[in-house]
């Protein structure tokens, strides 16, 4: 049984820290440094992606505005031509996608040379061609 004096006495014993090996202390410091660097890199990456997203959004708005203005211009041109009793010629495409869908069998030499010029040597190859008057 414990005596009353011993029970009433405050516990002044402090925990002694166990000695930590130097290599362990170094690894802990290194890990802390790495985690702080990773946090900083993550915040920088988040900020950069926010900027890129907002820039992309503003560009998209600009393109939408441009497309709408082009569409409005076409509509007004059609209306003006109709009011004046003229014909409005619709704008034609400026770009074409050419896809090879047939093999080499039973193709005449001129067509073969055209396919070669367009770099369509295999089936299912495709190439964009800028259209002109020719």
Descriptive report:
- It contains three helices and two strands; from the N terminus they run ααβαβ.
- With 134 residues, it is mainly α.
- It is elongated.
- The model has no long low-confidence stretch (mean pLDDT 90).
Major sheet, described briefly? Answer: 2 strands, antiparallel
Oligomer: single chain
Please count the helical segments.
3
Return the string of H and E elements.
HHEHE
Structural class: mainly alpha
| 3D shape | elongated
Mean of all residue-level pLDDT scores: 90
In order across it, which strands form the biggest sheet?
1-2
- The helicity comes to 55-70%
Number of strands: 2
Summarize the structure.
The protein has 3 helices and 2 strands; from the N terminus they run ααβαβ. With 134 residues, it is mainly α. The longest helix is centred in the middle third of the chain and has 63 residues, at 22-84.
């Amino acid at each position: 049984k414990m005596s009353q004096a011993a029970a009433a006495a405050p516990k002044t014993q402090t925990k002694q820290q166990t000695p930590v090996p130097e290599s362990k202390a170094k690894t802990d410091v290194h890990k802390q440094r790495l985690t702080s660097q990773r946090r900083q890199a993550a915040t920088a990456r988040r900020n950069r992606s926010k900027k890129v997203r907002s820039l992309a959004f503003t560009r998209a708005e600009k393109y939408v505005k441009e497309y709408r203005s082009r569409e409005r211009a076409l509509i007004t041109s059609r209306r003006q031509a109709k009011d004046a009793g003229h014909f409005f010629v619709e704008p034609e495409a400026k770009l074409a996608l050419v896809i090879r869908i047939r093999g080499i069998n039973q193709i005449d030499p001129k067509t073969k040379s055209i396919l070669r010029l367009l770099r369509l040597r295999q089936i299912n190859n495709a190439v964009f061609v800028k259209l002109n008057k020719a």
